[in-house]
Amino acid sequence: MSPTISTKKSKQKRKLAKSNQAKRREKIILLSVIIGGSVSVLLHLFIQIGVASSAADERESEIYYMRADRVLDLEEDAAKFERELRVAKNASTENTAGLKRAKEFERRRALDPAFAVTDFEKNMLEMQRIGQDPSVAPNEALERIAKLASPPKSGVGVFEDGEGLYRVEVAFPYGKVVEDNARIEKDLDGIYLQVRREAAGIARDILAFGAGRGVTGVTVSCQDNVTIKGREKDKRKERRDMYIISAVPGGLDWSAMSRGEAEKACKKVRDVFPRMLKNR
Fold first, then answer.
1. Which comes out higher in pLDDT, residue 101 or 195?
2. Rounded to the nearest 5°, which phi and psi values hold at 239?
3. End-to-end alpha-carbon separation of the chain, Å?
4. pLDDT higher than threshold 90 for residue 209
5. In sequence order, what DSSP letters do the residues of 103-125 get, joined into one string?
6. For residues 224 and 237, is the Cβ–Cβ distance under 8 A?
7. What's the pLDDT score for residue 2?
8. How many CB atoms lie under 10 A from the CB of residue 139?
9. Residue 224's pLDDT is what?
10. Angle 188-209/119-132 helices, nearest 10 degrees?
């Protein structure tokens, strides 16, 4: 049986419908592809923008910290420069002050009257004047020099040691040394040092300022009152030598010595302090 016209038309309609459906699917697929691609492009764009923004932030931070570091470097350089400038100024000032002190010391050492401020310095000027005064007899000059060189209440004696020559003896009280050094009264080591320095200073001054007055030697002792017990239980006070030194001119420049140097140049005759220090 042959197909009719209506049957042919029906088949054509079905083919056309299928064709239209295929085209719609293609359009839908194409649209989906386009949309998907657009989303992908946009997402990629957003990512790039984010990356760029992050990089910009990092760069800005780097610039900020670089500037901060630079400011700190400049401040540190300025502080360093100020320190170096102060050090230079201080060094210059100290050098100037040091030179000034050295010149002043030399003038004091030369017994410049303008620098006689302390009683000790005034005594030195007076000892110098007496030692150089030809109107004062040698023995009298040595006695007056010895009294000025010694603490108050010291005993002084000048004895002939040949024609125009004299030997000087001085005894100073131990109690006076303790009194003058009350802050270290209980420090026997410190008191012992002061006794040695005092004795050496006395010997030095007599030999220095009495050099032209025929002095042949000096003996200096530190004495203290000690209690002596008798057989009948009686007690009495006696003066005993605790420390004795002797010194001779020996061609030395005694005027240039410190008391420590003078101590080394003296001869120790008696010293009870080591025993006292051992038994304390």
1. 195
2. -90, 130
3. 156
4. yes
5. HHHHHHHTT-GGG--SHHHHHHH
6. no
7. 46
8. 17
9. 92
10. 30
